[in-house]
Amino acid sequence: MFDENKPKIKLQKDQTQKVLEIIVLICVIFCFIYPAIYYSALPKQVPMHFNYKGEVNSYGGKDSLFVLAIIGALTSFALFKLNQYPHIFNYPIKITKENAEKQYKESVKMITYMNVLIAILFVITSYQIVNIALNNGNQFGIWSEYLIYTIVATLTFWPLIFVLLKVFRRN
């Protein structure tokens, strides 16, 4: 399954990666703290699913907000740990001792950015669920819908563009 011939090297984190990891941590903490702050004010049932128009079409117990936060934390942690083993990633080119560090750094950077975007999606979702539940609204705000669409589009297309631009760049 894994190419045993790929070099295993320890990468040093640059300042940008450290800052992005802190942003992910803040997002994860927010997903736990924000619902906890308003927990006693929340109704027993809170919105848990939305249709394509952003309207609530399913409810769940208010404890499910913490399940959402746990899923977000596990996802962020898994991506964080995955970044520690770039030699197990799939690459569109052969990894050699000469190109390993560059390829590993670029792929780790991509996973880190994806982790930030996914963490932001969890923040938006937690924030909106709590606010909709408290205000008895029934729809995501227009700003969050566009932000979610932008993040999903970015998560979908950016890795492909990233790989095409970075991996095949001739130096």
UniProtKB/TrEMBL annotation:
- Alphabetical list of InterPro entries matching this protein: DUF1648 (IPR012867)
Keywords associated with the record: Membrane, Transmembrane, Transmembrane helix
Where are the bilayer-spanning segments? 20-39, 59-80, 112-134, 146-168
Does this entry carry the keyword Nucleotide-binding?
no
User: Record's superkingdom?
Assistant: Bacteria
Task: Please give one Pfam family short name.
Answer: DUF1648
GO biological process per UniProt: response to toxic substance
Name recorded for this polypeptide = DUF1648 domain-containing protein
